[in-house]
Amino acid sequence: MDLEHTLEEASRRVDAFRSLVAHIPYEAKGVLTSEMLFLVAAVGNHRPPKIVESGRARGQSTCILGLAFAGVPVVSIERDAHSPDAIVATERCAGLENVELHFGDANVELPARVSAGDIVVIDGPKGWHALKLALTVLAKRRPAAVFVHDCYKGQAERRFLERHVPGAFFSDDARFEAGFAELDGPVFETARREGFESWQPHAFDGRTQASYGPTYACLPWRQGIRYGSVLRRMVVARTISRIRRSFMKRMGE
Predict the structure, then answer these.
(1) Exposure string (b/e) for 77-87, b if CB count within 10 Å is 16 or more?
(2) Domains in the chain: how many in total?
(3) Residues contacting residue 40 through CB under 8 Å, at least 6 positions apart
């Protein structure tokens, strides 16, 4: 898996993908439709034994995964069984026989469920916690790839991935945006309708950002990379980042 292959696959698959998701209404808190095409295209012709997802919310990505990978078991883990979102996700995924909905702590449940060759999708936990989980799984379980959501440009976690994880690539590539952003029209229309006018391409919560959207990082498993060492380096980087953030906050005050 790499960016060039993903761009080629996305161009080849976009029409079929558009038809596949045309009847799926967008739900707030869900990933961008173009980001899901990125995931599907990156996986390409690889048929994983299963897909393991953490962070389901209202089931937007779960639904699309179940349809796009028909016949492949999709195991989805959500932490909060009592959230109103859980009911919505259950109703949306009810007709997908290959989708299993579970509740629990992804830090415990996800590594236990992942096997070699699987595809892993992490949309909760977030930030450094997500990177720790991703690197742990890569080190111990050898999935084909781990996709981590909310890895936008300028973020400390993103900089770490770019510097220290060979083969990492991202859905906010300018070429990918230029080719497939049109898929997200219904997403931003829903955001405006539901009072999230501040969420637009390259903007969130009233602030501009370099990334087009929340952004998937794709971390393909690569032979020869010592992911355990990368994980230890990440722990140090996380500590430094937190100290720096705390210092800047005090200086701002």
Answers:
(1) bbbeeeeebbe
(2) 1
(3) 9, 13, 17, 68
71 contacts 89 by C-beta, under 8 angstroms: no
Report the CATH number that the domain containing residue 226 is assigned in CATH: 3.40.50.150
Query: 200 is in which domain, residue-wise?
Result: 3-252
Tens of each residue's pLDDT in the chain, 253 residues: 999 999 999 999 999 999 999 999 998 778 999 999 999 999 999 999 999 999 999 999 999 999 999 999 999 999 999 999 999 999 999 999 999 999 999 999 999 999 999 999 999 999 999 999 999 999 999 999 999 999 999 999 999 999 999 999 999 999 999 999 999 999 999 988 887 777 899 998 888 999 999 999 999 999 999 999 999 999 999 999 989 888 777 776 5
Phi first, then psi, for residue 159 (nearest 5°) are: -60, -40
